[in-house]
Amino acid sequence: MTFYISGGCKNGKSMLAQHLCRALAEGGPMYYVATMIPHDEEDVARIRRHIQDREGWGFRTIEQGRDLPACLERADRNGTFLLDSVTALLGNEMFPPEGFDPDCGEKVAADLTAFIRGVKNAVLVSDFIFSDAERYDEWTETYRRALARADRVALECDNVIEVCMGRRIVHKGELKL
Amino acid sequence: MKLIIGGAYQGKREHAVKEYGVREEQIVTCAPDAMPDLSAPCLDRFEEFVFYCVTHGLSAREILEREEEKWRDSVIICREIFSGVVPVDVTVRAWREETGRVMTWLASRAERVTRMFCGIPQQLK
Prior knowledge:
The complex is a heterodimer.
Chain A: E1 2-7, H1 13-25, E2 30-34, H2 41-54, E3 59-63, E4 80-84, H3 86-94, H4 104-117, E5 121-125, H5 138-151, E6 159-164, E7 167-172
Parallel strand pairs in A: 1-5, 1-6, 2-3, 2-4, 4-5
Antiparallel strand pairs in A: 6-7
Helix pairs in contact in A: 3-5, 4-5
Chain B: E1 2-6, H1 12-20, E2 27-29, E3 42-44, H2 46-55, H3 60-66, H4 68-71, E4 75-79, H5 90-109, E5 112-117, E6 120-123
Parallel strand pairs in B: 1-4, 1-5, 2-3, 3-4
Antiparallel strand pairs in B: 5-6
Helix pairs in contact in B: 2-5
């Protein structure tokens, strides 16, 4: 069973994803795929907050900032996987220390597809950054286009949920919790 | 008129082609610096038509009301630009608000309103 979750920031996506994982896992192993490579104090604080939110849930953390399917070599594929977030994963792929990869959207989409096909349960969290009036520079716009491309993995998922201020809009499939 | 809205890159154009049989070459993409041909079978980036109006002292709503027979049977695609932080720039601020007003009015005139999210259509009307 696979879920794709997107929506605005700090609207309750991660918490919903954790609840979904617990329901899907039915006592089986749960993995948290940590994608964020911290760059500053703010990132460290954000990671600390996420770790606190997950405490006592029984997730095993596997760190994988790039090349997502590689993490499956260190996990039981019959488990339940929480990927939070597609946004951070794409950022790592597009802006590696050695440069800029503008075309990585396709690669990330392929990685995500291989990942969800390779596991029993997966919950993917993304961010909806597509509805403002800003005219961005070409770098940012390239990133937005690539994220939208990666987000199309939603079409491969069983369920697609938009979270808005803690409320859930079901775009595909269903949400029973 | 059928309205397709949604954030950037959410699959609006593909939906116009798939759902309404619009051909790619029939789609007129609006630009911020030119008045589009409102009689095109399909108008994409409609928010840029609103931008053109805002920056040229024109009322998009008045133009649309006056020339309604031109677009009455068309497919109109608009990027949702009304969310996000209130822009600092006065022009962008006016554009964002005017687009919200014009699209709310257009949606009331539309036979169908569809919102695209990650390539998935949702019927709002």
